[in-house]
Amino acid sequence: MIELKSPAEIERMHVAGRFVAEVLTEVGRLADVGVNLMDLEHHVRGMIERRGAVSCYWDYSPSFGRGPFRNVICLSVNDAVLHGLPHDYTLRDGDVLSADLAVGIDGWVADSARTIVVGTAAEEDLRIIRATEEALEAAIEAARPGNRIGDISAAIWAVARDYGYPVNTEFGGHGIGRTMHEDIHVSNKGRAGRGLELRPGLTLALEPWFARTTDRIVYDPDGWTIRSADGSRTAHSEHTIAVTEDAPLVLTRREAEQPATPSLRLSTKDA
Ligand code: MG
Ligand code: MG
Fold first, then answer.
1. How far, in Å, is the centroid of ligand 2 from the Cα of 57?
2. What is the rounded distance in angstroms from the CA atom of residue 86 to the CA atom of residue 195?
3. pTM of the model as a whole
């Protein structure tokens, strides 16, 4: 069932969204060469506790994964892209780090992810990060009343094609609100004009992610961490948004974030 949210409910999701944005900004500030993933995990745990928020990942037990997830943030490095299980790993110069966070505050949830490079960035890593950021902005732009879910999927796919990145269809965006995953899957590949018609009050997590040279994935023995099957590097960008009568409302926008636009394609600026 798809539940449309009232403006007041969307504002409550925005409260959670602002906090998620704040935490991901902090993760971007702290992630550096020599920092251990568990230091980031523990820092985020502290922030969540002090805010009185609830992690959507702690005790998360989907059909995949091995036992409940006992961390509050997903940290995926290099060829790892989704559900990265924080572990004892010290970040090295040039590592690509994707951080994905979903929390609830007073019963309403927001979900967002960003990818950054630690230390010296390789041009091809900045390029794929840029591609996911552009695809996310294109997806947000398509999230307007009268459009359909397929228009969002097609917008993401078009950016991926433009850059030459294959698109995996096993994991994509989703409805969100009272829980992290609500009805309607938003594939990162699809046809314009197909699927559910978008209406004001629809809240979605949109999350393009790409690997440089494959659309296939493999799981780590931990049962969680998902990597590109060929070991190529990856990136992931996600925002929680609300469809409104007017422009789409981004509930997890970071304060210093510069929304990607196609004209800035070769920019290396990171919010
Ligand atoms: Mg997420
Ligand atoms: Mg998500």
1. 11
2. 36
3. 0.94
